[in-house]
Amino acid sequence: MKKLLLIIVVALTGLYACNKKSDTTTTPPPAVIDPKDPQALVSAIKVYHGTLNKGALPATTGGTLTLSVDSYQAVIPAINGRYAVIPLSLASGLGTDVKGAYLKVSGSDSYFNIDFSKPRTARKANSKRPAIFARDSVSYVDSLIIIKLPDNTKSDTFRVEFEVYGNNQVSNIVTAIIQVMKGGGDGDAGKALAGTWEVSRFKDLGSLDTTWQPPFQHYSDTAVFWCHNNKLVNMFLDTLDVQLSLPVYSYRDTKNEITFNASGIGSGEDAGTETRLDTAQSNCSNQAYKDSIISDKGTFGWSYNPATKLLTIVYDQDANADFNDFSVEAVSVDVIGNKLYFNGATITEFLKK
Question: Within 10 Å of residue 331's Cβ, how many Cβ atoms?
Answer without folding.
Answer: 14
